[in-house]
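Section 5.1 Outputs to date
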Amino acid sequence: MEIKPIRKKWKSAMTDRERFNRQMHYQSVDRCFNMEFGYWDENFTMWDVFKDNGVKNNDEAHLLFAFDKIADVGGHTFMHPPIERRTVEVRESTRVIINEDGLLAETPLAGGGSSIPHYLKSSVETPDDWKRMKEEHFDVKHPGRRIDVEALKARYPDDRDFPVGVSCGSMIGRIRDMLTFEGLAYAWSDYPDMVEDMVETCCVIVEDTLDQLLPHFNFDYASGWEDICFKNGPIVSIDFFRDVVTPRYKRLNKKLKSRGIDLWYTDCDGDVRHLLPYFLEGGINCLFPYEVNSCAHPGELLDQYDGQLRIMGGVDKMRLGEGPEAIKAYLESLEKYVARGGYIPFCDHRCPPNVKEADYFYYLDLKEKMFGMP
């Protein structure tokens, strides 16, 4: 089914690509880059706008709302081939599965589509477990890691009018996924050499991906995923992050800089403030989609790291759920940062289903009025 936009694209004097690059480099633009991170799965069955227009996923929603276009290119930068997902046991109200990362997990039988599973056990608990997993699923020479560059070049030509980034995967966040929160906390204390080898393995795989892609594309930015913090800060020690993770960022950043890529965002929820100096040292200079409630108002960090840091996101989803007055007050608190550059405002994660559909349209309309009129 073809998705037809129900909103008009914001008036423009620049291409999406020109606008994105200028805005993220603190240069003048015709208007703000217009994007959103997406929606909980439940929104697609609850909001009439999605049901009435046959929209079932975030890509279709972005077309429906005529957002500016942005895309990522990457390869298999973590476990490959993945572990086959299978059901182990069905209980009264939950299902116990082995997921693609090899985790034993408990998930609801009904509903809870966007909720985090309850993880019961990791497939990697000792160095012997990691040795087996590395041999079977982290071979950098696996043929499945070879990228069809020509197909991607046809899809993302250099004369495109929208920004395209190259994925730099994850140095520690996906490892946390594989080991679990508690498992990583124990592992970097009990088996530090094992965890460092995991980080090194991830780095080597991403380096190989970059070597395949960078010579063939004129990328606008780099992206990553590093969900390694929660509301009380990082779940690994600062020393470990500084001494083990940051040097790998520097290796990747050297490759990016050699191809003129000086914008690199990572998706890290939670309170990132303790890690931010080491992100910046390693070359990561943008936060996405920047979660507010477990950290701080985006303006606090943009002021503290003026000219060094960029943020994409940072519109408090809690305020979206409180109605027009709260939405207006929050967007007004962002005005000077949008005007200054280096900041693109949108919901600070997937928009949750408690946000009323009418209030979300109010938010989109107000955002256009404040930031979209050339």
